[in-house]
Amino acid sequence: MSCVVDLRNLWWAYENSSDWVLRNINLCVREKEFLLITGPTGAGKTTLARIMCGLIPRSYRGVLKGYASILGEEVSSIKSSQVLRDVGFVSSDPEMQFLTMQVEDEIALRLRLLGVSSEEVNERVSWALKQVGLSESILDKSPYELSSGQKQRVAIAAAIVTKPKLLVLDEPLSNLDWLGSEEVVRSIELLRLNQQTTIVVIEHRIDVFMQYLSRIALINNGVLVLVDEPSSFFMKLPKDFENHVRVPEVVRLWKYLSLRYSLRNENISNELLKVYLAKLLKGE
Length: 284
Hints:
With 284 residues, the chain is an alpha/beta fold. It has helices at 45-52, 55-58, 80-86, 103-113, 118-131, 148-160, 178-195, 230-236, 249-260, 270-282, and strands spanning 3-14, 22-30, 34-38, 62-70, 73-74, 87-90, 166-170, 198-202, 215-220, 223-228.
């Protein structure tokens, strides 16, 4: 399977910085994958997201060594029109992304820049709003008047309205409660399934994404420490890094069951959880 994002021996340092923010990154994000990248504050997660969506080196000055490509095009030469059409990006601070004074214009902006017809723009805006659980009654409002959760959803709607091939989200749940988070995560997963979109999420909150993820990656001090499937990621997580990752409760339960029933060579799965939970409840 081809790499939608291909990073090889990648190093990056911002202009006037003496330190590398990313160090020898090697990662292939596969087509239709749902990848979550986690790690402590200052680890390089947002910088990695900027490279994956084409903002680096286009919008940030610095030194890039190694190879980085998006959708088969090197990041230094990919066309702006292709990024606009095929790559969606959601910042951790939605207000930083807003460019217009009306929700409808904000969501429709990328489509209009691409020359999409008015009829299709209206259809796509309605579709995007529905995906993130927002009512069309907010279309004539200023995005700055909305609640924090609504702002986050508008930013996501604006990113998915073109039905991109790659969607990169930097802490998209930061302003959402648990119920709102579940709704947004399900909509992202439906986009992956129905539109074959590749999803990359930068997040501390792993639990709400857990059932949908293809892989989890841990970055620390600019280095990819571990990349693996959810079923084995937490089993392989070095103890030195356990404080840097919010381990989901289901994983904590599985670790307890693994110790109790000597399951050290088994990976977590819903089927095994059910079996050994039943044993535990029976007192076996």
